[in-house]
Amino acid sequence: MLTAGLVLLSLSGNPAAASIISIADSPPRFDIAASCRDVGKSGVNVGRPASACQGDEERARAQLTARWGEFTPSARTTCVESASFGGPPSYVEVLTCLEMKKP
What we know:
Elements: H1 2-12, H2 15-25, H3 32-36, H4 50-67, H5 73-82, H6 91-101
């Protein structure tokens, strides 16, 4: 009983727990310009213009908005959080992750 109370107390004061709930409610809002700013500077995207990146991100955002309800809340939370690791978040990464998690 004491353990359950401590868990609830720790969750109620945890801002990350509140943000997880909001992540699953609606599609994320990312700064596409920031996501595409360094395209072409790394070895991964050599020769790819930022405009191509921005187009891909816009299309992925539109698909996420249209299909958000198809994905489970836990998958949405996991994919949005993982898209932020290692640099600016990407709609393409979120969409790819969500599609891979579909049964």
